[in-house]
Amino acid sequence: MVIRFVFQQKLILNGNENKPIFEHNILQNLDFSKSTTQYNPAVSVQNPGEGLRMRPLCRGDYDKGFMSLLSQMTKVGDVSREEFEARFTAMEACPDSYYIVVIEDTMTKKVIGSGTLVIEQKFIRKCSSRGRIEDVVVHNQYRGKQLVKLMMDTLMVLSQQLGCYKVSLESEDDRVMFYSQFGLIKEAGQNYMCRRFKEM
């Protein structure tokens, strides 16, 4: 058991732990000139706050509390390293589809924020793409630092820069006003419907 664990650790730490799920320069090259979001004090992708770094999700983030962070938002379950690795690999195998952005506290080496943009390829609208924003969460201890706002702003700008004809998210009633500052609206005649098959 110990030998197997050490072997797994070596696989992760064999230069792959810093491999991002998408290219880091995509974040660095985002154009926020059309964003109307206001920040006080100023924060950005390059400078999200003192001791913080905004970047793509990496394979090594399993050891930096990524799954624990997600559990502050919803049910996660007991996800093993092997399961995390398999899912990361599956997402990585679908280029231009999964953009998972995280915020890391560089002092504690923990992931304290995350948000996902999923790109859905379409045949309609001349083979266009639609963006879906999912799983936006900031660690309880880091709230009130404009990090959710910055994450949302980043994912919105990213979706537009990637050529999406629209972007959407699912929201609880008490969050609708917050999300409206990013240009998101409740469209008349549109309803979100859901059928849950089983609880995980």
Automatic annotation (TrEMBL):
Its annotated pathway reads:
Nucleotide-sugar biosynthesis; UDP-N-acetyl-alpha-D-glucosamine biosynthesis; N-acetyl-alpha-D-glucosamine 1-phosphate from alpha-D-glucosamine 6-phosphate (route I): step 1/2
One GO MF term on file is: glucosamine 6-phosphate N-acetyltransferase activity
Gene Ontology biological-process entries: UDP-N-acetylglucosamine biosynthetic process
Keyword flag Transferase: yes
Q: What class of enzyme is it?
A: transferase
Q: Which residues form the N-acetyltransferase domain?
A: 52-200
Could you list this entry's UniProt keywords, alphabetically sorted.
Answer: Acyltransferase, Transferase
Q: Which Gene3D superfamilies match?
A: 3.40.630.30
Chemical reaction(s) catalysed: D-glucosamine 6-phosphate + acetyl-CoA = N-acetyl-D-glucosamine 6-phosphate + CoA + H(+)
Q: Which InterPro entries match?
A: Acyl_CoA_acyltransferase (IPR016181), GNAT_dom (IPR000182), GNPNAT1-like (IPR039143)
EC number in record? 2.3.1.4
**One Pfam match, by short name?**
Acetyltransf_1
Top-rank lineage group of the source organism: Eukaryota
Matching entries from PANTHER family are given as:
GLUCOSAMINE 6-PHOSPHATE N-ACETYLTRANSFERASE
Similarity field: Belongs to the acetyltransferase family. GNA1 subfamily.
Protein name (Swiss-Prot/TrEMBL): Glucosamine 6-phosphate N-acetyltransferase
What is the protein's species of origin?
Sinanodonta woodiana (Chinese pond mussel)
Q: What is the lineage of its organism?
A: Eukaryota, Metazoa, Spiralia, Lophotrochozoa, Mollusca
